[in-house]
């Protein structure tokens, strides 16, 4: 296999003989390379100079030292839900074998390897009646999600961002050192890692709080798309009175007629209200009764469920597919913004967008944790995300479709963005994403721990000058 458009010469077998690891060392063209470079989003392709499939933290240290000695960037990959670049010159460190999950029931913590998926953590914690601040998709990796803040649609509104509850991290920095980082040991690095994404090193393990939740009342109410205005207005009027234990989102769906989708939703335009309530089913049912009464539903999946089934609330794809997504935060959502959203993705719109989702935030998401971190989006009440699905040759159309939504909602856009919802072309926008003061602090930490910007194939924070 030939790698093109590279500014550095390809690595040869002789170059990597000194790289002694317990895991695998894969050059282009060798067995296993193509399998390990695959990512969840089929519209992204990795073609690195070298892949190291780590078995332990020592393997990560060796890979980082190897890259540093040769002036090559390092990219970390678990599942590849969010990629920004093919990484042609890079050393990719694949972490999926680092997937140990240890639950400490007495301390209510989980110690998780960097390659663990949320499905693995949920299953392990549930054995002891505990639950993490997981994301909506069970196939997403814990570490990337958490380092980007982690907006849990099940428990986040009452507990805050996943990053708020990280107790400690093991991280290999650009100098090859394995550091155990917490609030007492290296406070600035601890602050930056929790919200600064993968800019400061390779996390090999993290410890975070889990919560005594074994069941949840959740699911979705699906309505005909022509009732979008009624549903959206009723939902926004309902939101101010709900407790922090209730989380809800709105989505406009234009799903294709695929057999793996629920039959009532195939090939039609529908709108849905999603819920996750950490309380009794009776209270949850009473709370959402006014919304159930808006109109006859196409499908109603809201029910009491064990926490192990919370992925069914959003029912997101768990197999790789080609897609494009991008999001912004809204500082407000008045009636004029509601009208605009209806115009952009409602029944009279010609959009092809699969999903336009608006998540209502507030509650603990607005509060600084006891140990502050770099999460930038506190105080912004809504997250708006557009998702289009289609192959790489259709990228221009997919981007135009999402841009029409987000540009249309720009009058109500907040001044910061959620890192986990950024698109590849926004990789150079980190200063705008974090805001000037927070970015300056991140850049100072970057200068201390990664002065050559080894970890740059991301939504990059550059070292301070």
Automatic annotation (TrEMBL):
Q: Where do the FAD-binding PCMH-type domain residues begin and end?
A: 44-213
Q: Which InterPro entries match?
A: BBE, FAD-bd_PCMH, FAD-bd_PCMH-like_sf, FAD-bd_PCMH_sub1, FAD-bd_PCMH_sub2, FAD-linked_Oxidoreductase, Oxid_FAD_bind_N
Q: Return any one Pfam family short name.
A: FAD_binding_4
- Give the cofactors, semicolon-separated: FAD
| Keyword Flavoprotein annotated | yes
| Keywords (A to Z) from UniProt | FAD, Flavoprotein, Oxidoreductase
Flavoprotein recorded as keyword: yes
Superkingdom of origin: Bacteria
Q: Which family does it belong to?
A: Belongs to the oxygen-dependent FAD-linked oxidoreductase family.
What is the designated name of this protein?
A: FAD-binding oxidoreductase
Q: Which organism is it from?
A: Kutzneria chonburiensis
């Amino acid at each position: 296999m030939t790698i093109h458009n590279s500014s550095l010469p390809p690595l040869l077998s002789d170059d990597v003989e000194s790289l002694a690891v317990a895991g695998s060392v894969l050059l282009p063209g060798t067995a296993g390379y193509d399998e390990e470079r695959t990512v969840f989003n089929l519209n992204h392709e990795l073609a690195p100079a070298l892949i190291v499939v780590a078995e332990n933290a020592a393997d990560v240290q060796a890979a980082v030292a190897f890259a540093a000695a040769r002036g090559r960037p390092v990219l970390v990959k678990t599942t590849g839900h969010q990629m920004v670049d093919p990484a042609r010159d890079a050393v990719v460190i694949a972490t999926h074998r680092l997937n140990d999950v240890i639950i400490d029931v007495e301390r209510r913590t989980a110690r998780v390897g960097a390659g663990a998926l949320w499905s693995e953590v949920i299953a392990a914690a549930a054995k002891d009646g505990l639950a993490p601040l997981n994301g909506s998709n069970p196939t997403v990796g814990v570490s990337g999600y958490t380092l980007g803040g982690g907006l849990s649609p099940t428990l986040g509104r009452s507990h805050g961002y996943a990053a708020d509850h990280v107790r400690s991290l093991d991280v290999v920095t650009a100098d090859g050192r394995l550091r155990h980082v917490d609030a007492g040991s290296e406070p600035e690095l601890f602050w930056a890692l929790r919200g600064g994404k993968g800019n400061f090193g390779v996390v090999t393990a993290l410890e975070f709080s889990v919560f005594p939740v074994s069941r949840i009342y959740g699911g979705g109410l699906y309505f005909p798309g022509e009732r979008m205005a009624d549903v959206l207005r009723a939902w926004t009027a309902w939101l101010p009175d709900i407790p922090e234990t209730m989380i809800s989102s709105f989505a406009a769906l234009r799903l294709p007629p695929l057999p793996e989708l629920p039959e009532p939703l195939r090939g039609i335009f529908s709108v849905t209200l999603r819920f996750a309530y950490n309380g009794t089913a009776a209270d949850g049912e009473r709370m959402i009764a006014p919304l159930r009464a808006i109109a006859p539903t196409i499908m109603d999946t809201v029910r009491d469920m064990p926490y192990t089934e919370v992925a069914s609330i959003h029912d997101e794809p768990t197999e790789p597919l080609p897609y494009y997504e991008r999001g912004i935060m809204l500082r407000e959502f008045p009636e004029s913004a509601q009208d605009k959203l209806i115009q952009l993705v409602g029944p009279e719109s010609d959009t092809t967008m699969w999903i336009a989702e608006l998540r209502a935030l507030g509650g603990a998401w607005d509060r600084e944790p006891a140990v502050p971190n770099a999460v930038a989006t506190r105080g912004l009440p809504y997250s708006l995300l557009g998702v289009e699905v289609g192959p790489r040759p259709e990228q221009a159309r997919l981007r135009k479709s999402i841009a029409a939504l987000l540009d249309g909602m720009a009058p109500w856009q907040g001044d910061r963005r959620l890192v986990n919802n950024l698109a590849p072309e926004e990789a150079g926008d980190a200063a705008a994403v974090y805001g000037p003061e927070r970015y300056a602090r991140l850049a100072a930490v970057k200068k201390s721990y990664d002065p050559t910007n080894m970890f740059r194939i991301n939504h990059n924070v550059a070292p301070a000058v």
